[in-house]
Design goal:
Structural class: alpha+beta
Number of strands: 8
Number of helices: 12
Largest sheet: 6 strands, antiparallel
Order of helices and strands: HHHHEEHHHHEHHEHEEEHE
Strand order of the largest sheet: 3-8-4-5-6-7
Shape: elongated
Distance between the termini: 8 Å
Strand content: 15-25%
Helix content: 40-55%
Oligomer: single chain
């Protein structure tokens, strides 16, 4: 897998925009009878020009939305090819698997999707197909295996391999490696062209003010975010647990957010990090 430079990313974006124009001119009939191709093409173009436009809307698609953001950002031409294959063929070839949108999903994708059609096309397909693609990881923490509706770590690992094409994929459990250690490893991964996705308690880590422990007595993993840049780790004072500080930029909810918090809240609200590297 090639690590893209700024110039190569610009060239890839131009290729993707040309592919979108070709898709717009295609006369191949749609397998999604209720989606508007003109609107779909416009939304695809807007996301290639600005990947932060990827938006899960009101749907619980934070895991696949994090994956889609990195797909558009790092591999825009592949993103366009996946969208076109889904629209015209009902499925696309991932790294080792064929991923198909079910007939039911294609027929029922109508009305208020609570998100853009281009995002729905990919995200709903990934969410709908995941149970058939990636078996449950028996080694995952019990809380992850028991939570219903949440994108699991093994699903994220599967998408990092199958959709993004990274060969070296792992999940750092924070109770094994430590939260700051997992963040430090993730920072090294993204600095060398890889990707990192963090499982967090959203209200705790991303809220306007970090809740005190007594205000959030039960913290549960409920949101995936994409680590993108500016990781800074300040070590704590020896002998004073949780006295350190961390900050970093993430993608979530169709925007860049800056997280700046103490070591204690960070440890409380981070559950693990999935990373992907080319080799």
């Amino acid at each position: 897998m090639t690590i893209h430079t700024a110039s190569s990313n610009s060239a890839s974006r131009q290729e993707a925009l040309a592919a979108i124009a070709a898709f717009g001119q295609s006369t191949v009939p749609s397998l999604w009878p209720h989606l508007d191709k003109q609107k779909l093409v416009a939304e695809m173009r807007s996301r290639v020009n600005d990947p932060f436009k990827v938006n899960q809307g009101k749907q619980p698609f934070c895991g696949p939305a994090s994956i889609l953001f990195e797909l558009v950002r790092k591999q825009p031409l592949r993103y366009v090819q996946i969208c076109r294959d889904l629209f015209e063929q009902g499925g696309f070839q991932a790294k080792t698997k064929q991923i198909n949108a079910s007939t039911r999903l294609r027929q029922e994708s109508k009305g208020d999707l609570q998100m853009g059609q281009a995002d729905w096309l990919v995200l709903a397909t990934l969410r709908d197909a995941e149970n058939l693609l990636f078996p449950v990881d028996p080694d995952a923490p019990e809380i992850m295996r028991n939570l219903s509706g949440m994108t699991k770590s093994w699903e994220m690992k599967g998408w990092v391999r199958e959709i993004l094409g990274y060969k070296r994929v792992k999940y750092d459990h924070t109770y094994l490696l430590g939260d700051v250690g997992a963040l430090r490893n993730a920072a090294q991964v993204i600095e060398t062209g890889g990707v990192a996705f963090m499982l967090v308690t959203a209200d705790g880590l991303l809220g306007q003010a970090t809740p005190r422990k007594e205000e959030l007595p039960v913290a549960l993993p409920n949101h995936w975010i994409t680590l993108i840049s500016n990781v800074a780790i300040q070590k704590g004072t020896f002998g004073r647990h949780d006295s350190g500080h961390v900050s970093f930029d993430v993608f979530t909810w169709a925007k860049k957010m800056h997280v700046d918090t103490g070591e204690g809240p960070f440890e409380r609200f981070l559950w693990g990090i999935v990373t992907g590297q080319a080799t």
